[in-house]
Amino acid sequence: METDKVLCVAEKPSVAKEIAKILSGNRFVMRNSRINYIKNYEFKCHLNRKEVQVIITSVCGHINALDFPSQYAKWESCSPTVLFDAPIIKKTIDENAESIRENIFNIAHSVSHLMIWTDCDREGEKIGSDIVDICRMANSNINVSRARFSAIIPTQIKQAWELPAQLDMNQAEAVSTRMELDLRIGYAFTRYQTLGLRQIFQELGNGKILSYGSCQFPTLGFVVERYRAVENFIREKFWKIHVVAERDNINVNFSWDKGVLFNINCCNAIYCDLMMDQPMIATVVEVVTKETRKYKPFPLTTVELQKAGCRFLHISSDEIMKIAEDLYNKGFISYPRTETDQFDHNFNFQDLIQAQTQDPRWGDFASSLLDKRITTRKGKHSDQAHPPIHPVQYAPGLTGREKAVYEFVVRRFLACCSDDAKGNETTVKIRIKEEYFTAKGLVILENNYLDVYPYDRWNDKNLPNFILNETFTPKECTMEEGETTPPEYLTEAELINIMDKNGIGTDATIHEHIKKIIDREYVEKQDQGNKTYLVPTNLGLAIVEGYDSIGFNESLTKPLLRAKMEQNLKEICEGTREKNAVLIENINKYREMFLITHNSLQFLIEGFAKYFTLRCFGGCDDNMDMLLSRSSGTNNNPRNTDTDSHSRRGRGSGTRGRRSSRGNGENDIRDIRGTRSSRGSRVSKRGGRGSRGRGNRAGRGFRSARGRGNRDNES
């Protein structure tokens, strides 16, 4: 009797190799494909108590992409509005993807069963569905199943092999919907503003692409909004009364319960009244000591990992995700793309903690947890697919940033398994005439999780003994002047938090959108002291101010539109909305926004004119009208790159490669954005490197030539 053959397809070459090692006991035959980094691993093992012949291979992220037919390829071949309804074709991403497709197609001819081993998330389901289509073209009778796992470790891989599930086609449909929306909307807006505004403003040149993306726009908008808050901040003076008591050679600072007053006369009247009687007498009216605690952290999610990487490890969110994915591919940590912040009640903590006892840095702490009943905090989120990020095996020998990220994941996991820090907090309240002042002290009794988690701080604050109803004469009573301070520019960690709260991007794509607005030169990083801030360039400000001045009901510059789209995609995943209904609703909505933009074009031009030099002083609207009605192209076109050309696409290494549109991605159709500002009159209209009202920022902004070569084919 002929042995059944099973084809297993993973999302990355490195994962395919690890699965082959685990299922074969490291006894397999490796065969080459037409691409040197795609290998086919062959061996025999048992499935459902039957011996089967297994072939494991892989893709490198997405194989297929959506595009318009060739007649729409030239940027000036048609009006951008046509792209909202133009036909769409599915094609392989490039020659390498075509070779990968052929490899799978050829194997599928001779197998009876296909098992999908792509990552267990939306993108993985979509990639899996494309693999199924390829195999069914070769073998219409092939049986399909889906392996579900969260870590590349023997227990999970063997369980996924023995208990396969089915592909979630709703999730695949959601990704397909998002890809089509990003393609249509991105192409239309990017072509319109790039071709039109380059004719009007000379600094934009012939090679600059002004991109649009429905996640990039709001991301840029958050940066600009904070920038305006800083730049437009008006400092106000305030006054307060401060009392110091000396006891046991310790100066105790008492804060005024009124806080601060913005009226100097008011504050001075109260202060003079207090100082009228000498010596001044303070009465202790309250002494309260109570137990307090500093709560241990929640289990680790993708968003929290990105924020922590920026804040504590000083690694960008994009780099953090690359490192985390490499650690996952090597089998050191669990799947790093998860919204789940609660462990299942059956989760096996003991084995994972035991594995960490050998480390000289945290081994003793891990050992102390083994005899305890482990309870962790439960957050409010579960994606029903993956547990929180945690170490799955001990990883000695790591270096550099890999070591730092792995250490953070381990310490966070051990902190979650520990207890809250505990202490006693004492509050002393005193009265001087009719005014009340408060001092607080803290005595830490148990460090608990703080012993392994240095990223949190909780410090003792010694407070001498005070007795209820006692009286004393303060050492000092002063009236002090202060001044309100502006907020700081956004850090990357803060931006991640804002995007997450507003539903811009998913936990798996937030870092990509931040990277894109930096790559597009809409935003730049600026170091101040030991912090790195995100600050808009002149180009970013021009985009935001131009679009925001149009006055949309649902602005392109705000998160609401994209958040609604994300909700629609979630409804497709849940099976409560159909793909076509979501496509029609969103395409019509963005078409309307496009036409409003064109009809209000002067506002957009005026926004750019604050920062760049007009090339044409009359007929600018006519140029844009010609663009909108154009039906034939010219020879002066940039390469057509406003497409999601690098969605989960590998580059020949054993890792995922570039995943620029993973999750709710933006078509690589470069994004641009706007928000209203009153700073126009303060900004030089020289364009390009115009002064921006602050000495240390003069000369910043968009630089049209930076020696980076042609950026038309960037993703």
UniProtKB/TrEMBL annotation:
EC number per UniProt: 5.6.2.1
Gene3D superfamilies: 3.40.50.140, Topoisomerase I, domain 2, Topoisomerase I, domain 3, Topoisomerase I, domain 4
SMART domains given in the database record: TOP1Ac (SM00437), TOP1Bc (SM00436), TOPRIM (SM00493)
Basic and acidic residues composition bias: residue spans: 665-674
Listed Polar residues bias regions: 630-640
UniProt GO molecular function: DNA binding; DNA topoisomerase type I (single strand cut, ATP-independent) activity
Renumbered residue ranges of the record's region Disordered: 630-715
Domain Toprim per the UniProt entry, residue ranges: 5-152
Bias (Basic residues) ranges: 648-661, 682-697
Coiled-coil region: none
CDD domains with a match to the protein in the record: TOP1Ac, TOPRIM_TopoIA_TopoIII
Source species, domain of life: Eukaryota
GO biological process terms on file: DNA recombination; DNA repair; DNA topological change
Cellular component GO terms held in the UniProt record: nucleus; RecQ family helicase-topoisomerase III complex
Catalytic activity: ATP-independent breakage of single-stranded DNA, followed by passage and rejoining
Pfam families with a match to the protein in the record: Topoisom_bac, Toprim
Function per UniProt: Introduces a single-strand break via transesterification at a target site in duplex DNA. Releases the supercoiling and torsional tension of DNA introduced during the DNA replication and transcription by transiently cleaving and rejoining one strand of the DNA duplex. The scissile phosphodiester is attacked by the catalytic tyrosine of the enzyme, resulting in the formation of a DNA-(5'-phosphotyrosyl)-enzyme intermediate and the expulsion of a 3'-OH DNA strand.
Family: Belongs to the type IA topoisomerase family.
Protein name: DNA topoisomerase
Organism: Glomus cerebriforme
Taxon lineage: Eukaryota, Fungi, Fungi incertae sedis, Mucoromycota, Glomeromycotina
